[in-house]
Design goal:
about 40% helix
Length: about 325
Amino acid sequence: MYIFTYLKLPTTTCAAVNELRMNEVEVCYHIPVLFGESMDGLNIRPSGVYVDLTFGGGGHARGILERLGREGRLYGFDQDADAEANIPADDRFVFVRGNFRYLSNFMRYHGVAQVDGILADLGVSSHHFDDEARGFSFRFDGDLDMRMNNRAGKTAADILNACSEETLASAFHCFGEVKSARKLAAGIVASRTAAPIRTTGDLLQIVKPFAGWDNDRKFLARVFQALRIQVNDEMQALREMLTQALHLLKPGGRLAVITYHSLEDRLVKNFLRTGNVDGQNPSDVFGNRSTPFRLIHGRSITPSAEEIDHNPRARSARLRIAEKITIR
């Protein structure tokens, strides 16, 4: 969920949304990525029940609320305390303070058995990237935190100073696709024996010698991405959420997911095509294959050139939408 500044959006078509200019923006928290496309993709029913699993600045949530009638309901999930400042004063909205991996538990707590649509805008917000105290960006020399929920769990510094060389190498290779993952992990372990790694500056001193001269920023971005995913257990949380979302959706209900890197996009793509996180679609004894979803678009939806021009942090976004069907 790339967060930059809150855009007060009317109920419009995708084309109209993409014509908005920055001088029309009410500066507050963020520009919701692929706003019109995701609203259209959810096919919102005025009396329906919906879930925004990544509330953040509330841009997508406000778009859903604008399309709901008085009987409609929206549940917004976020584990970050900062997001609570953006809760709308709307009695149709319920804020859920928690990780979306506990989707089923929280919805059961609220007495909701099935919903009409679920939206998840994955990733890290610009609000987080631009806060040097959170440690998500290598642009600042701040504490290495990187927790989405900074009220619980291990920080990035804890991971770097305590995890084995094998665990670190695996994280850099699997979550960042870092080619020199083993050498980098060995360098981190060797450095921490001399002094603990506490800040982004400490980490950069260790990491930079392993970066090629021509792709320094890309290399650093991969390293920080891998560490952030490890800290927040993002891939496992995504797997758990997708499985629960399938069971929570009504037949005809839609799941819309916006991803920002190949690892999560591949997982979402395979899940929507097969209905399971392993991407397996076994056939029955007659060779027939079944899936619980109907893809709304054969391919992912990407931001227009205009949207990227207005919000460059949207450039890697991909939206995938599927509708739950009844398998006979």
